[in-house]
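Researcher: For the annotation table, I need structure tokens for HIT family protein. Please keep the output clean. Sequence:
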Amino acid sequence: MASIFTKIVNGEIPSYKVAETEEFYAFLDINPNAEGHTLCIPKKEVDKIWDLDEALYNRLMTFSRKVALAIESVVPCKRVGMSVIGLEVPHVHVHLIPLNKMADATFQSKVTLEKEAFEALSQKITRAYLASNK
Ligand code: AMP
């Protein structure tokens, strides 16, 4: 059965898209640790990050770096942290989390956002991402 993230890539489940390439997709985490918490995934469905072939892993890191720099340029934060967990969704995803305090990295304190706030954030990050890729 397709993962929930494959369904997002295929447009069967909605998402707040941030960036997309032929191979990768980035979208806002629906239960964010902090405003701007973004997930970067390979479209190819692989469960564990260490099972990606090395070249795809490296390209995922390059994509995630571009997205992280875009987030950092528009979301107020001290830095953008990166985590890979995967205990909930068995489809590789890199968490990019704007950090202001250690609790933002813990996945135990969450923020609640309205649809409009998700939309505004995703549009802001997308604009920064596209501007950096001109
Ligand atoms: P983990 O697999 O533990 O790294 O966590 C999976 C992450 O995916 C969690 O932070 C969830 O909030 C997030 N998530 C699950 N379903 C969706 C969805 N439909 N849209 C966006 N984020 C999601």
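Researcher: And a one-line annotation?
Model: The helical segments are 4-9, 54-74, 115-132.
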